[in-house]
Amino acid sequence: MHSSRKSAKTKRDSKSSFSHDKRWCPELKEGGYAPISSFFLKNYHQLKPYDLTHGEAMFVIHLMDYKWTAEAPYPAYKTIAQQMGVSVKTARRYAQSLEKKKYLERQARVGNTNLFNLQPLIGALVDLKTKQSASQSQKGKIK
To answer: Topology of domain 36-142, per CATH?
Structure first.
């Protein structure tokens, strides 16, 4: 096989090894999947001035399952509660807590479900990442 063809095939094969089907399985892909930032998963408990609880983080993950575009997701509390295995009241409390911490902005809509704007949380995560990068950069200069 020609070396450039071999190289292209190797790249193609390595990409496919990262597919959803390879990481999970085809049967689990059928219901869809949510892209969740690894940075969020590793750092939600380190946000400042308020960290997120495990329940709040799961609420955000469930919201992300409905965030298909740059627009705010709008699932019903009942839907999120059922998926999380909690009461509707608990799902509302997670949203209220996130809003109080200034990581979520809810927009009520008459005759429709709320819009859940996650931009404040995304901004807080970007700030945390920037601070962590600056801190690592400073540590590198000290050495």
So the answer is: Arc Repressor Mutant, subunit A (1.10.10)
Burial 65-102 (b: 16+ CB within 10 A, else e): bbbeeeebbebebeebbeebebeeebbbebbebbeebe
Structure confidence by residue, pLDDT tens digits, 98-117: 999 999 999 999 999 999 99
Residue 129 contacts by C-beta under 8 Å, 6 or more apart in sequence? 39, 43
Beta strands 105-107; 115-117: pairing state: antiparallel
